[in-house]
Amino acid sequence: MSTEHSKIHPVPERLLDAKKVPPKPHIDSFEAYQKMYRKSIMEPEAFWGQLAKELLHWHKPFETVLSGGFDYGDIAWFPEGELNASYNCVDRHALANPDKVAIIYEGDEPGNDRTITYGELLRDVGRLANALKSYRLRKGDTVAIYMPMVPEAIIAFLACARLGIIHSVVFAGFSAEALRDRIRDASSKLVITADEGRRGGKTIHIKKIVDEALKECPTVEHVLVYQRTGSDVPFKSPRDLWWHEEIEKQRPYCPPEIVNSEDALFLLYTSGSTGKPKGILHTTAGYLLGAAITFKYVFDYHEGDVFGCMADIGWITGHTYIVYGSLCYGGTTVVFESTPIYPTPSRYWEVVAKHKITQFYTAPTAIRLLRRLGHQHVEGHDLSSLRVIGSVGEPINPEAWEWYNEVVGKGKCAVVDTYWQTETGSIVISPLPGAIPTKPGSATVPFFGVDPVILDPTSGEELHGNGVEGVLVFKQPWPSMARTVYNNHNRYLDTYLKPYKGYYYTGDGVGRDEDGYYWIRGRVDDVINVSGHRLSTAEIESALVAHDGVAEAAAIGVSHEITGQAVHAFVTLKARGENTEVKELVLQVQKGIGTFAAPKKIYLVPDLPKTRSGKIMRRVLRKVVAGESDQLGDLSTLADPSIIPTLINKVNQEQ
Ligand code: 6R9
User: Fold this and answer.
1) How buried is residue 42: exposed, middle or buried, by Cβ count under 10 Å (0-12/13-18/19+)?
2) Which residues form the AMP-binding enzyme C-terminal domain (predicted)?
3) For 268, which of 7, 30, 170, 203 is 20 to 30 Å away at the CA?
């Protein structure tokens, strides 16, 4: 593990010198972190019980902190408690401080921005919630949200939460087919969407995609359409309803539906190593608590700060930090509709300077892209408001980390490489700005209540001590962990709790260095991470095989300078599909999943490497593409070794 010897960065002085530059970090020394961490692990009930009272508003207090565990996946946090997520994210702040800005919207075109205060947000959420009620939607129903990055998307989240309706947000980059599958799996009754989206100067025909998806979604009764661009789009009465007309009819206050701590807050679909995407289900109190406490400590958020997370609300990062963490904690959050390079590669920095962003959160893929385009795009912008700069979604390489730290952070900001998953709900391994010295490329140390263990993947034995390498599991439940897979609890157990009995299994490889710091290596299963987006080889393969001409397909992740990994696929054609072109196959994946999943390269080959029992040996394909054909490893189970030279030739020809 060469990475362990990399440079240690102490906590930046600027953060510790609160006299000169307030505020003083919430946790300002390694010892303070250790003390709190120890308490969170040794006395989790006392630790979380107290925080749940401090950070959440309860309509009915809880008695028990935690019940159940990993054996049956019957985990319940604060089980007698009752609350409402939108009350926690809006009402209490609106009552205390109605004029405080809750949301800053920065539209695709520079100059198109606006703010929404907590007082306004309460009325906007109330109107929309009353509209939802008028469609007879109620607690436990599911609603699909397929929206561009506009504040109305957040209003939609919160209006659902206000009524105990489970939202299922689908990233607006997913294709009609992918949207259809998610709507069907969740039996959503309503789709909240927009006429069109705008991103990077381009138009996204959102409503048309929804119409296409709904051809096969019998549960959907209505489609509520927010006018983002005002263009003429297909509109089908009485199924379709205009957002602006609907909310006009409604009174701006809607009483919150008080729900149990363990009632579902939302579903979010994510890819695993096998089969269809899973509807990861998060519940109300534990999730909100995890979101709010990590927001406070990992980003060291203080009154008056402006939190700028560049993720899309369609992913978990958007859910937890743009929406729930920030608003539950009473913060000011930015909704950014554009891209890091529109209209120029300075866009992020213009936005930071304009809104005086204090915490900036993005993904390694964006950092690598901007680094390649050059530091001149960062210079000349006033980034002095920044205190904490974060990274999420995939391992960040030390070169990108150093660039982020020096060029963006000017060596004065805390860099937080935050490791977590859709399923963990909130950040689980990360530095804390005022307390943890950092090492570029390491997510450093566990967050409160998170007990990481490294297992030997084959024996399942715990690897104690430092300087070990294996798979990452967690030993204790934490409040924001997912509770189930929608309508498929067995799949939840099989994926997360059964692989290693007594532990939650992450699916990630990890090392613990001599200082006890964690280094996430990436997925050990068949999940490919492209620009921080999780894709499964199985999903890409089934999209390819859906093409008439395709006999078989194997997808692999190949390392890529900007996107971290890229998808490459090997495809065999049916006899009657022999004229199929690579172009068509790329389109096929765009149609089945979305443009972001399109393979960078497709190799048409006569056969795939398989074991005698017929399993595709993706490991062999990965080595061939990486140019490591001399290290193919054990090939004794390979059914037909003569395929190897053919594969090597094919790859060499096309690279
Ligand atoms: C939040 C999010 C989860 C997977 C996860 C891991 C990878 C995320 C990371 C990281 C190394 C980090 N991942 N953050 N790997 N360092 N800081 O991204 O959720 O979309 O569910 O992806 O992403 O492989 O298992 P999600």
Assistant:
1) exposed
2) 539-615
3) 203
- In the reported structure, the alpha carbon of residue 289 is separated from the centroid of ligand 1 by a whole-number distance in angstroms of 20
Q: ipTM of this predicted complex?
A: 1.00
In angstroms, the CA 654 to CA 558 distance is 15
Q: Are 306 and 355 in contact (CB under 8 A)?
A: yes
Q: Write out pLDDT tens, residues 116-163.
A: 999 999 999 999 999 999 999 999 999 999 999 999 999 999 999 999
- Å from CA of 420 to ligand 1 middle: 5
Question: Which numbered atom of ligand 1 lies nearest the CA of 422?
Answer: 21
- In whole angstroms, what is the distance from residue 421 CA to residue 454 CA? 17
510: Cβ below 6 Å to ligand 1?
A: no
Q: Are 428 and 419 in contact (CB under 8 A)?
A: yes
Taking alpha carbons only, the member of 96, 97, 159, 98 closest to residue 124 is: 159
Residue 294 beta carbon below 6 angstroms from any ligand 1 atom: no
CB within 8 A of 618, min separation 6: which ones? Answer: 526, 537, 554, 555, 556
Residue 392 beta carbon below 6 angstroms from any ligand 1 atom: yes
Answer yes or no: is the C-beta of 312 below 6 A from any ligand 1 atom: no
Atom of ligand 1 nearest to the CA of 270: 21
Distance CA 154, CA 24 (A): 31
pLDDT digits (tens, 9 = 90+) for 489-503: 999 999 999 999 999
CA nearest ligand 1 atom 15, residue: 394
| Residue 28 near residue 16 (C-beta atoms within 8 A) | yes
Q: Beta strands 166-169 and 142-146: pairing type?
A: parallel
CA of 307 to the centre of ligand 1 (A): 20
Q: Which residue has the CA at smallest separation from atom 5 of ligand 1?
A: 421
